[in-house]
Amino acid sequence: MPRKIESLFLSGPAGRLEALIEEPEDGAPRAAALVCHPHPLHGGTMHNKVVYRIARGLRRTGHAVLRFNYRGVNLSEGSYAKGEGELEDARAALEYLRSRYPALPYALAGFSFGSRIVLRLGCGEQDTLRLIDKPIDQPSRIVAVGFPTEYRDRSGLEGCTIPRVFIQSTNDQYGAVQDLRATVDALPEPKQLILVEAQDHFFAGALERLEEAIAGLA
Questions:
Q1: Residue among 113, 109, 99 nearest 139 (CA)
Q2: What is the C-alpha to C-alpha distance for residues 4 and 65, in angstroms, rounded to an integer?
Q3: Which of 4, 66, 185, 214 has the fewest CB neighbours in a 10 Å radius?
């Protein structure tokens, strides 16, 4: 069966957002996933090689996957907003994904800057819903790939009990394994750390192994 792929524009808080939805090749989706890309000021787009592999690994486990470009990237309107606007872009994309697949469980995944966005989105949403005493329709898991430990802000992570999976290159120049291990060790369960033998932050020489790690999460 050919891959089902659709290009579209979403309504975002700063204008339209360029997006792409792909469904599994082997039948109807059994879950949905939002995948967020790296830093927009450093060449990050939804077509990044690592983001593509994350999306493909998720599709192999039955997910319909939504990728999108943050504001100001390629055909998305607006301009960079220091991470806060990009978080709102991700929230808008998630709302669209949930409206399109309302009956399916969903996951969040992101690479580098995108890993910080999905952790803030998923864990922050958990806190918000608790405050307003609303039933929590939370993600089945949050997958943080290439988490940049050089950013010391851990807001929202400490009390988060959504299952979190951290996948890191063994030679990540922006997130050394020993730093990430210390961070993950301090977090509440459930959590998992998966190390992939790779040359750098971008999983050079190991993109296939990264995809297998994602596909193996099912």
A1: 109
A2: 10
A3: 185
pLDDT digits (tens, 9 = 90+) for 21-50: 999 988 899 999 999 999 999 999 999 999
On the question of pLDDT at 130 being above 80, the answer is no
Using an 8 Å Cβ cutoff, are 170 and 182 in contact? no
What are the residue boundaries of the structural domains of the chain, listed by start?
A: 4-215
Average pLDDT over residues 189-199: 97
23 Cβ contact list (under 8 Å, min separation 6): 3, 4, 5, 29, 59, 64, 65
CA geometry: angle 96, 135, 119, nearest 5 deg: 55
Q: Does 4-215 carry CATH code 3.40.50.1820?
A: yes
d(CA 118, CA 191): 15
How many Cα atoms are found within 13 Å in the side-chain-facing hemisphere of 40? 23
Among the listed residues 121, 5, 136, the one whose alpha carbon sits nearest the alpha carbon of residue 70? 121
Q: What is the mean pLDDT of residues 9-21?
A: 98
**Residue partners of 183: CB distance under 8 A and separation at least 6:** 147, 149, 154, 157
